[in-house]
Automatic annotation (TrEMBL):
<feature type="transmembrane region" description="Helical">
    <location>
        <begin position="6"/>
        <end position="24"/>
    </location>
</feature>
<feature type="transmembrane region" description="Helical">
    <location>
        <begin position="225"/>
        <end position="245"/>
    </location>
</feature>
<dbReference type="InterPro" id="IPR046675">
    <property type="entry name" value="DUF6545"/>
</dbReference>
<feature type="domain" description="DUF6545">
    <location>
        <begin position="251"/>
        <end position="390"/>
    </location>
</feature>
<keyword id="KW-0812">Transmembrane</keyword>
<feature type="transmembrane region" description="Helical">
    <location>
        <begin position="31"/>
        <end position="49"/>
    </location>
</feature>
<feature type="transmembrane region" description="Helical">
    <location>
        <begin position="182"/>
        <end position="205"/>
    </location>
</feature>
<dbReference type="InterPro" id="IPR050039">
    <property type="entry name" value="MAB_1171c-like"/>
</dbReference>
<protein>
    <recommendedName>
        <fullName>DUF6545 domain-containing protein</fullName>
    </recommendedName>
</protein>
<keyword id="KW-1133">Transmembrane helix</keyword>
<feature type="transmembrane region" description="Helical">
    <location>
        <begin position="141"/>
        <end position="161"/>
    </location>
</feature>
<dbReference type="Pfam" id="PF20182">
    <property type="entry name" value="DUF6545"/>
</dbReference>
<keyword id="KW-0472">Membrane</keyword>
<feature type="transmembrane region" description="Helical">
    <location>
        <begin position="102"/>
        <end position="121"/>
    </location>
</feature>
<feature type="transmembrane region" description="Helical">
    <location>
        <begin position="69"/>
        <end position="90"/>
    </location>
</feature>
Length: 420
């Protein structure tokens, strides 16, 4: 019971995801639609025969065991639908339509034949498995043979086409894994269909096979359906997880640049496409979420906005400030990229202060590009932003410049910012 509900839930979730990708415009085409229809049929078939639900369906229709007929018809259509999906993937456009029509004709004929045999059998309500209880009746024997035979054909077709297409997919390993899971699910489900045919034939010859075979059919059916449903979900969920991780990484990088970006755009309100959120925790969380939903667009936009701010600050970049920050950083034991990020952060923040205070441009310094592409530029600006937030060198040089700016107004000499 629990296993049935679990497998039905997996199939339903996979069908829902497929429908979401179709309606959301992410993926189009009849193959995807056939996949969604197949998974929906599988989920509905398992739900129809679940204890409690089957009795409700029988009572609603007013025909004993009609839930079994519904489940069997849905199973046939589910297997044929998967086969049609794979036909679209493996055949040429000229032969696809003919192959799909042939399979749909088979499924439609099987539906009519199974319904007719079910009505002819007239099996009264009884507890237990319908096949196990009535498999000796001739109409039920024929029903079982027909259902098992069609399902066997569809499952072999499913496994064959899945393995054929898997050999063609050389650049998408996750899709290849999903196709192999399809094939495995089809082959395992053969234990269900072949056993049904064997029991029906044994019944025609008066051989008593007992009821132990029902456990074989149940196990192989649920395991096979579970593999098929999981195989259909593997490519999509893997791609979605990869995209989510990528977005989370981009959002983290945006967060690392937040302080530098905030300082730039607050001094130049015309630059950003969105204004900074508040600095308290929920504001920062909203900024992270906005970056995540941006799918990388916020990341590149943030780099461009910071660089636009740099261009407008260029007249206030001071070479003396750069030399002073370099001296203090080396004295503090900084080297390499950490030292240069600290120097850049110092030059930028002092330029922001000078522009805000109305100082005359000096235009004696410059800031080199930190990277050769978007990825390296993002890493570099994140490092500059962290230096702006944490480096004592930035605080020290900024304080010196503020004191030098205030000294003339107080009539005292300004301290030198050149090397000591």
């Amino acid at each position: 019971m629990i296993f049935t509900i679990l497998v039905a839930s997996v199939a339903l979730c996979a069908a829902g995801y497929t429908a979401f990708t179709l309606l959301g415009g992410r993926e189009h085409g009849p193959a995807r639609a056939w996949m969604g229809g197949s998974l929906f049929c599988l989920a509905l078939a398992l739900a129809t025969v679940a204890p409690g639900i089957n009795d409700a369906v029988d009572g609603l229709v007013g025909v004993p065991h009609v839930s079994r007929l519904i489940a069997h018809v849905l199973t046939v259509w589910a297997a044929i639908a998967v086969s049609c999906m794979l036909v679209y993937w493996t055949r040429s456009p000229e032969s696809t339509r003919r192959a799909v029509r042939r399979r749909l004709l088979l499924a439609g004929s099987a539906t009519v034949a199974l319904a007719a045999l079910f009505l002819i059998a007239r099996t009264p309500a009884a507890p237990g498995d319908w096949f196990a209880t009535y498999h000796r009746r001739p109409p039920v024997m024929i029903y079982m043979t027909l259902f098992g035979g069609i399902l066997t054909y569809a499952l072999i077709d499913l496994a064959r086409l899945s393995l054929r297409y898997a050999t063609r997919v050389t650049t998408r390993p996750v899709t290849r894994v999903g196709l192999r899971m399809f094939a495995a699910g089809g082959l395992i489900s053969l234990g269900y269909s072949v056993t049904i045919v064997a029991v029906a034939i044994a019944g025609q010859f008066g051989i008593d096979v007992g009821t132990a075979w029902t456990y074989v059919t149940m196990t192989s059916q649920l395991t096979g359906i579970g593999l098929i449903a999981a195989g259909s979900a593997v490519p999509g969920t893997t791609a979605a997880a990869s995209a989510a991780l990528r977005r989370a990484h981009d959002a983290h990088q945006c967060e690392r640049m937040e302080l530098l970006w905030r300082a730039i755009v607050q001094a130049h309100p015309a630059i950003p496409r969105r204004q900074p959120h508040p600095t308290h925790w929920w504001g920062r969380g909203l900024a992270w979420t906005t970056s995540w939903l941006g799918d990388g667009r916020s990341l590149s936009r943030r780099v461009l906005e910071i660089r636009d701010g740099y261009l407008q600050l260029t007249p206030w970049f001071d070479g003396a400030v750069r030399d002073r920050a370099l001296q203090l950083g080396q004295r503090a034991g900084m080297t390499g990229s950490d030292l240069m990020a600290t120097v850049e952060a110092t030059v930028v923040v002092v330029a922001l202060d000078a522009k805000a205070a109305g100082d005359d441009p000096v235009d004696t310094g410059r800031v080199e590009a930190g990277g050769t592409d978007l990825t390296s530029e993002v890493v570099w600006l994140g490092r500059v932003s962290q230096a702006l937030a944490r480096s004592p060198v930035v605080v020290s040089v900024r304080a010196e410049q503020a004191h030098a700016r205030a000294a003339p107004a107080n009539g005292s000499p300004a301290p030198s910012t050149t090397s000591e």
